[in-house]
Amino acid sequence: MARVYDILVRARDTLSEKTPKRWKTDQLLRSLSECQKKIAQELRCIRSECTIQLCHAHHTYKLDITNIHTSGTALAPSKVINHAGVEARFVTQTIMQEEDAEWRTRQGGDITHIIYDKKNPLYFRVYPIPTTSKIVEIGSTFNTTEDSIDDAATICEVIASPGSFDITAEKTPIKIQMYFFHVPPPIVTVVDTNLLLPQEFDIALKHYVVGMTLRNDLDSQNRSFGIEELKLFDSQYMEAKALTDENFVDQSDEHYASVEYNAQIK
């Protein structure tokens, strides 16, 4: 049985409405999508990955997943594996400056550092500047601009690097494997597969759907019941969060621990 269908069945049990009459399925699905979006944004517990082939002489990129299979909205990168299979470090511009005063113009092959922007983590810079002649994008889409970077401002999108590059030379393409947090697209049917939150949240999702449905009702008694359901949601949400936090930390790859990466970004 599809999870979405099961959650809505149990929600209608609480609403004492086995078949859609007063509360339409579309209304319940909107509340379900809204709840998943809020949880995904707060906990960053939904992850995916894509392979990116870097552009020659470009050092700054914006993660855009609108054209890959996950769709939805990207939140932030969580991990990058370079062409040699080694994990790149996430650092701020300040730390990068301390490690290499010439980091803005340093050229090289395998990416060793990802310089992220605290104000907008979707924008990131790779170090060293890739020197590959093939300009191909795999699994992800990037926007290009000729703007410059302002240290105190948000990093711009894809920027041509300074210096001299031979774009006609044969060079090995440089790829990185990008792991990222994202928000799934809206849930639109009872058999939808876009419910990607861990199953530990299903009870909380049910309480949220019922709570929002009743809270938006004109009947004062229903509104009171709705507030009670939202309190149950808060309780179940905290329990599910505790369980999923333990699961993330227990994984062998520490960069999948939501607490650790969120602490880096904030």
Write up what this structure looks like:
The chain is an alpha+beta fold. The longest helix is centred in the last third of the chain and has 31 residues, at 220-250. The strands form three sheets. It has a five-stranded mixed beta sheet. Helix content is 35%, strand content 18%. It folds into two domains: 3-44 and 187-254, no CATH class; 47-182, no CATH class. It has helices spanning 3-15, 25-43, 93-99, 202-215, 220-250, 258-265, and strands at 47-53, 58-62, 73-81, 89-91, 107-108, 113-116, 123-127, 129-130, 159-160, 175-183. It is built from six helices and ten strands; from the N terminus they run H-H-E-E-E-E-H-E-E-E-E-E-E-H-H-H. Helix 2 crosses helix 4 and helix 4 (202-215) runs antiparallel to helix 5. It is elongated.
H-E order: HHEEEEHEEEEEEHHH
Unreliable spans: 133-171, 249-266
Domain tally: 2
Query: Could you tell me the radius of gyration in angstroms?
Result: 22 Å
Main sheet properties:
5 strands, mixed
Percent helix range: 25-40%
Number of helical regions: 6
Overall strand count: 10
Distance between the termini: 39 Å
**Widest β-sheet, arrangement of strands:** 4-6-7-2-9
Mean pLDDT, to the nearest integer, reads 77
Task: Produce the secondary structure layout.
Blueprint: H1 3-15, H2 25-43, E1 47-53, E2 58-62, E3 73-81, E4 89-91, H3 93-99, E5 107-108, E6 113-116, E7 123-127, E8 129-130, E9 159-160, E10 175-183, H4 202-215, H5 220-250, H6 258-265
Parallel strand pairs: 4-6, 5-8
Antiparallel strand pairs: 1-10, 2-7, 2-9, 3-10, 6-7
Helix pairs in contact: 1-4, 2-4, 4-5
